[in-house]
TrEMBL record:
CDD domains: Endonuclease_V. Belongs to the endonuclease V family. Its main location: cytoplasm. It comes from Sphingobacterium spiritivorum (Flavobacterium spiritivorum). The record marks Y77 as: Interaction with target DNA. HAMAP family: Endonuclease_5. It catalyses: Endonucleolytic cleavage at apurinic or apyrimidinic sites to products with a 5'-phosphate. GO terms for molecular function: deoxyribonuclease V activity; magnesium ion binding; RNA endonuclease activity producing 5'-phosphomonoesters, hydrolytic mechanism; single-stranded RNA binding. It is found in: Cytoplasm. InterPro entries: Endonuclease-V. DNA repair enzyme involved in the repair of deaminated bases. Selectively cleaves double-stranded DNA at the second phosphodiester bond 3' to a deoxyinosine leaving behind the intact lesion on the nicked DNA. This is Endonuclease V. Its cofactor is Mg(2+). GO terms for cellular component: cytoplasm.
Length: 235
């Protein structure tokens, strides 16, 4: 898959086409025993992207395995078009997994996007994988003020329709933006992320993916698929 030479109008057209393939009612996505987290890292001014997908047992958040791969992208970083830069590298890591997780959490938006096509939605449509977007910043939608305590949430709406949730995962710390990518409902996505929240602002699947992919980028970890026999010191 090569998005490098796309124009923005062409990328927008792809998003409009993919959005018609979205679904949020996959019955097999309701029973969750494993959950994945995906993240990308790169060096400034480099076209090489480092991708990590981690697999954890759910809901106890025990790290089971992870896959590491690289990709190449010259597509620019533009809000709303993150998938065109990062999805190809993530697919390289995805292809290394012998067993896929029941749900995959991606660092970015799901349907909290002007065309419902954040990176989690884009990846989900392409793979048929149940996905959730967990973003650190707002891109789309309106919401009420959020209480300051851990666990507080409020719907994010488009008109009168709920398309995601704002969730405070740590007291007096900035919240995260949760939305379904593919295969799950808005409420189920929130429920899953609540179960993945520990001591940190970022839920465990994407937090661990972030840690691992940065160690991969700096040469501390090797590419390929790895099963975890014991806890890794970087956690």
């Amino acid at each position: 898959m090569d998005y490098n030479n796309l124009t923005l109008p062409e990328a927008t057209e792809i998003q409009e086409d993919l959005r018609h393939k979205l679904r949020f009612d996959r019955p097999d996505a309701q029973a969750i025993y494993t959950i994945g987290g995906a993240d990308i890292s790169y060096n400034k001014d480099s076209e090489i992207l480092y991708a990590a997908i981690v697999i954890l047992n759910y809901p106890d958040m025990t790290l089971h395995s992870y896959a590491l791969a690289t990709g190449h992208s010259s597509f620019p970083y533009i809000p709303g078009y993150l998938a065109f830069r990062e999805v190809p590298a993530l697919l390289n890591a995805w292809s290394l997994l012998p067993v896929r997780p029941d749900v995959l959490v991606l660092d970015g938006q799901g349907i909290l996007h002007p065309r419902q096509m954040g990176i989690a939605s884009h990846f989900g449509v392409l793979t048929g994988q149940a996905t959730i977007g967990c973003a650190k910043n707002s891109l789309y939608g309106r919401h009420a003020d959020l209480a300051p305590y851990k666990g507080a949430s409020t719907p994010i709406v488009e008109g009168t329709k709920s398309i995601g949730h704002l969730l405070r995962t740590k007291e007096a710390v900035k919240p995260v933006y949760i939305s379904p990518g593919y295969g799950l409902s808005v409420d189920k996505s929130l429920e899953v992320i609540r179960q993945c929240t520990g001591r940190y602002r970022i839920p465990e699947p994407t937090r661990l993916a972030h840690n691992i992919v940065n160690d991969f980028r700096t040469g501390k970890l090797k590419p390929g698929y790895h099963e975890v026999q014991q806890p890794l010191s970087l956690f």
